[in-house]
Design a protein that fits this description.
By secondary structure, this protein is mainly alpha-helical. It has eleven helices and no strands. It has two domains: 79 residues, no CATH class; 88 residues, no CATH class. Bound molecules: iron/sulfur cluster. The site of iron/sulfur cluster has 15 residues, from helix 2, helix 6, helix 7, helix 10 and helix 11.
């Protein structure tokens, strides 16, 4: 499998350039609230693992945010275990894999949750605002919105990818980590 590697100091930059909208949203909310609920931590945490963030960097990353909200001690007690668990270092020692689009799209986020797929779970107004922030032009935006309305969420994501990279993505988007890898390939070429 193709792999890339991202270390702690590169995450901000990578998030800006190569994260799909679902992960940008979680990332932005984490930075804003210094907190994410469990399902959001799983969705973003496993994605970051897939992106190549090592366990020590992952712990430092989550600690830097969560300790601002709950304090370092509570972070170690209540949250660090789950991060090590995601990396297969606790419990049954299963090496969990990052969630696919299909799985993320079928999530049912409730109030205060930020996981899920924005193309499915955002209101049209919020989706338009988020796409604008990503740099999707007005012309491309109508196509994306149209696909999302017609429940073609992954096609909407693919069109978003194509709009902001000015490059085609013939195989389509079916996994957030694939989005990341394809984006990095284009940006590094
Ligand atoms: Fe994320 Fe997939 Fe939705 Fe794109 S289609 S925002 S990669 S879940």
């Amino acid at each position: 499998r193709e792999s890339t590697e991202v270390s702690l100091k590169d995450i901000d930059h990578a998030a800006n350039s190569s994260f799909p909208l679902c992960m940008r949203h979680l990332y932005a909310k984490l930075k804003e609230d210094h907190h994410l609920k469990h399902a959001g931590r799983m969705q973003l945490g496993l994605f970051l693992k897939g992106v190549g963030l090592k366990l020590d960097d992952a712990l430092a990353f989550w600690r830097a945010e969560f300790s601002q909200k709950v304090g370092a001690e509570r972070f170690e007690k209540e949250y660090a275990y789950n991060i090590r668990h995601n990396y297969g270092k606790e419990g049954k020692r299963i090496d969990y894999t990052p969630h696919s689009c299909q799985r993320i799209i079928s999530a049912t986020p409730g109030v205060g949750d930020h996981h899920g797929c924005p193309f499915r779970h955002f209101s049209e107004e919020n989706l338009r605002a988020a796409l604008g922030q990503m740099g999707v032009s007005n012309r491309a935006m109508e196509d994306v919105i149209d696909k999302a309305k017609n429940r073609h969420y992954q096609v909407a994501c693919t069109l978003t990818f194509e709009a902001i990279h000015s490059s085609s993505c013939d195989r389509g988007i079916n996994h957030p980590n694939q989005y990341f890898i394809d984006s990095q390939k284009i940006l590094q070429s």
